[in-house]
Write a structure and sequence with these properties.
Layout lengths: L8 H4 L3 H13 L8 E5 L7 H7 L4 E6 L2 H8 L4 E4 L11 E7 L8 H10 L1 E12 L5 H10 L20 H8 L5 E13 L4 H7 L4 H6 L5 H12 L11 E13 L1
Parallel strand pairs: 1-2, 1-4, 2-3, 4-5
Antiparallel strand pairs: 5-7, 6-7
Helix pairs in contact: 5-7, 6-10
């Protein structure tokens, strides 16, 4: 994940299976004959590191993240980790696979970031990225709407979450001239969630966190209640009580 001292691994991993599936799908499509150095950029709690190790036996697998809390969780499984700002991270030597699952969307300046990441690959290397494409979905849109209303409005006036990612065509134009191969695709997952206001719980592990962290403790319950109320008509329960969360994600594989 990008730099954020408030990351809570336990909250993020409440939906670990749902959050891991895109990583499973992305790893399965990486084609490299025998990488020696593989980096998970923005590894978070490290739940994708075993996938990479299984896919690339014998490779040196390293998780990079800015959050000490997340790295403590990732390192507990025995994988090598390093703390660094993923916006400016530079390897000591070219890397064979740079993998990033749900991390780079937190960073601005993709016009410079993605060509730079491609330049860090060894010949024949692969940049494999997945990012949520949810900025216009109620889950994300209502965070800003609720933040602009109520007694917390002044406190949250300059607070925001992950910025919108670029349009698919923009990533194509950025990478196609620089890459030997490029695959882009979207997948919309439908997550079956359970419990009280489960979409709020989902958002608290990621995109809602900057808003919650900026509030004094006394305001947090009322803000979360207002967000939950705004979300309920958008994500009504199904007949069995489950709440279905459609979640769209953007994938890219660029090879040198």
């Amino acid at each position: 994940m990008a730099a954020n001292p408030g990351w809570d691994p336990e909250q993020y991993l409440r939906f670990s299976g749902e959050r891991l599936q895109p990583a499973v799908d992305l790893v399965a499509r990486i084609r490299h004959p025998g990488p020696r150095r593989v980096v998970d950029l923005g590894c978070g709690a490290g739940n994708a590191l075993p996938l990479l190790a299984a896919c690339f036996p014998g490779a040196e697998i390293t998780g990079i993240d800015a959050s000490a809390e997340m790295l403590a969780k990732a390192g507990s499984a025995g994988f090598a980790t390093a703390q660094a700002d993923i916006a400016t991270w530079t390897p000591e030597a070219p890397v064979d696979v740079i993998f990033s699952n749900a991390a780079l969307h937190w960073l601005p300046g993709h016009e410079a970031l993605f060509p730079r990441l491609l330049s860090l690959l060894a010949p024949g290397g692969v940049l494999a990225v997945q990012m949520p494409a949810m900025h216009d979905a109620p889950l994300r849109r209502l965070q800003y709407a609720v933040a602009e209303q109520g007694p917390w409005a002044d406190t949250l006036r300059k607070v925001g979450s992950a910025p919108p990612i670029l349009a698919m065509r923009d990533y194509y134009d950025l990478l196609r001239p620089r890459a030997a191969g490029l695959d882009l695709w979207f997948t919309e997952y439908v997550h079956e969630l359970h419990g009280q206001d489960p979409v709020v719980q989902w958002a608290m592990g990621s995109s809602l966190r900057p808003f919650v962290e900026a509030l004094p403790d006394a305001m947090k319950p009322s803000f979360l209640a207002a967000y939950a109320e705004a979300l309920r008509p958008e994500y009504p329960p199904a007949g069995n009580g489950a709440v279905l969360l459609p979640f769209r994600r953007f994938f890219m594989l660029a090879s040198t």
